[in-house]
Amino acid sequence: MPLGAVYEVSQQWTLGPELCDMWTSSDVLCCTASILHLVAIAVDRFWAVTDIDYIHHRNPSRIGCMILIVWTVACLVSVAPLLGWKDSGWHDRVNNESMCMVSQDVGYQIFATMSSFYVPLLVILFLYWRIFQTARKRIRRRNVGMKTAAAAAAMSAGMGAGVMCRPPPTVSETTAFTTVSSTNTSPEKTSATNGLAPDPPTMDGLSGVSPQPAHQHNHAKRKAKAAAADSKRERKAAKTLAIITGAFVICWLPFFIMALMMPLCPTEYCDFNKYMVSFFLWLGYFNSTLNPIISTLNPIIYTIFSPEFRQAFKRLLCGKKYNRGRHHVRYMQ
């Protein structure tokens, strides 16, 4: 980027063909490696979502192998012009026209653009689509299970309410009960003859029924809240993936369309404005700038918008006072 800035300001290349070769090759190397690292991240996320046991196989050797593959492919793409894969007018363009451009050979441009952008773009789109599909199926399957459990809890609560709301016994049932009680000595009657007050009637039959439906009802409400939270997470994940993929496409697609058209379309038919070429190039550079910006802003964003992060920071900053306040609020509820 420093040599690119000098070239943009001076509007001519005065540093010689050797340094031009080095600059264009390092530019292709870094841009290709940056894009291929996005592919590696997408592959890692795909394995993490679709393979439950992947976390046990995710060791430094495996990650190091992925990084090695990324830099190997990037080196192959960038070193090809140094080995002679240049267009016939490259030297004349650098020495006489003071223009430093990567090799405009049609075969090389097709190979470079396909390896650096078009194939990685298709892989990223496919993997993120599969990740989103897998996450959505998993959340919907969980929601179906929650709805089934909630329905069972509601049926159980209805049965419990039926027991609680049974009509009072009829006169004949009361007479029969009294007759049986008079012929048998009950614990209440024995206690009364011993001078003790009879024990109040227990509600064992009802107490075994009424608390259970209430507990199940609360459990069903909690599951419904969890389902709503899962749905919110699904939307947030879809939005995040859309932002990541959209930023990548918006930043790099114009440059690689232009890079493929320049050697294919003759100058007399396609006149590419130099300011447009520079803008598309630096727009691609800006994609790499977005990553540290997002990483820097993530703690602030999470702290503002995530309740879990807010509570964690309050515990860290306030310590025991925050815990005592939470216990007090819970006790008051």
UniProtKB/TrEMBL annotation:
Region (Disordered): 180-231
BP terms from Gene Ontology: adenylate cyclase-activating adrenergic receptor signaling pathway; positive regulation of MAPK cascade
Domain called G-protein coupled receptors family 1 profile: residue spans: 1-295
GO molecular function: G protein-coupled serotonin receptor activity
Principal cellular location given in the protein's record: membrane
Entry superkingdom: Eukaryota
Coiled-coil intervals, chain numbering: none
Subcellular localization: Cell membrane
InterPro entries the UniProt entry points to: GPCR_Rhodpsn (IPR000276), GPCR_Rhodpsn_7TM (IPR017452)
Gene Ontology cellular component annotations, sorted alphabetically: plasma membrane
Biased composition (Basic residues): 216-225
Membrane topology, as annotated: Multi-pass membrane protein
One Pfam family linked to the record: 7tm_1
SUPFAM superfamilies the UniProt entry points to: Family A G protein-coupled receptor-like
Transmembrane segments: 22-43, 63-86, 106-132, 241-262, 282-305
Keywords: Cell membrane, Disulfide bond, G-protein coupled receptor, Membrane, Receptor, Transducer, Transmembrane, Transmembrane helix
Family from the record: Belongs to the G-protein coupled receptor 1 family.
Protein's name in the database: G-protein coupled receptors family 1 profile domain-containing protein
